[in-house]
């Protein structure tokens, strides 16, 4: 169970890429099983747009249904447009496993933050990230940790504007103790380090 509330969140605000600082009112909540196909399509389109088409083998973690078995899959909806799906993110559950091998027990990590291409620059990702930060604090985590590709400079600007700091000593994607991918690590400290 996560600390996310299902109350509306305001988009815009600290997002430097938000075209409309007032932004739409969003509902950010746990995904329903009926959302999984739409989440997969949204994430696939967002990542193909940003990274190019993927020719790698199918990673089960790229499917919302598989992620939801062990992690929290969240969606942002626009209630003024019939609840259309605008974004999604997957987070660690309090007391659950981390999404990344090198994440500490008191850190909430996330993966697969993505926004609808039609909703970009409207503050959706910033609203989702602010909700993640608030929920992590409410759930007793000490920090929020994420990994991002070095070429995702727009995402870097968003994370930095929200108060995340680079942690280059933690860079890379690690699987079974082996660094398999070059990724930047960002950390949002919620409590002072011991």
Global mean pLDDT: 83
Query: Structural class from helices and strands?
Result: alpha+beta
CATH level 1 class label: Alpha Beta
Give a short account of the largest sheet: 8 strands, mixed
Helix content: 10-25%
Enumerate the strands of the largest sheet in spatial order, edge to edge or round the barrel: 1-2-3-4-5-6-10-7
Strand content: 25-35%
How many separate structural domains? 1
Distance between the termini: 26 Å
Characterize the overall form.
globular
CATH level-3 fold name? Aminopeptidase
Architecture per CATH nomenclature, i.e. the level-2 architecture? 3-Layer(aba) Sandwich
Give the C-alpha Rg: 16 Å
Can you write the helix and strand succession as a string? EEHHEEEHEHEEEE
CATH H-level homologous superfamily name: Gcn5-related N-acetyltransferase (GNAT)
The helix tally amounts to 4
Number of strands: 10
State the low-pLDDT regions, or none: 1-22
């Amino acid at each position: 169970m996560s600390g996310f509330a299902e109350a509306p969140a305001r988009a815009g605000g600290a997002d430097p890429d938000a075209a409309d600082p007032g932004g739409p009112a969003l509902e950010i909540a746990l995904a329903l099983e009926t959302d999984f196909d739409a989440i997969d399509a949204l994430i696939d389109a967002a990542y193909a747009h940003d990274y190019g088409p993927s020719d790698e083998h199918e990673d089960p973690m790229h499917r919302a249904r598989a992620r939801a078995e062990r992690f929290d899959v969240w969606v942002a909806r626009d209630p003024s447009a019939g609840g259309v799906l605008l974004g999604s993110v997957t987070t660690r559950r309090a007391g659950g496993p981390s999404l990344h091998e090198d994440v500490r027990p008191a850190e909430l990590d996330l993966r697969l933050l993505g926004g609808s291409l039609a909703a970009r620059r409207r503050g959706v990702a910033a609203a989702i990230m602010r909700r993640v930060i608030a929920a992590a604090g409410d759930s007793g985590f000490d920090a929020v940790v994420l990994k991002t590709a070095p070429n995702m400079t727009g995402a870097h600007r968003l994370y930095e504007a929200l108060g995340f700091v680079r942690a280059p000593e933690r860079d890379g994607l690690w699987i079974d103790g082996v660094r398999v991918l070059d990724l930047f690590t960002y950390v949002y400290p919620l409590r002072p380090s011991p």
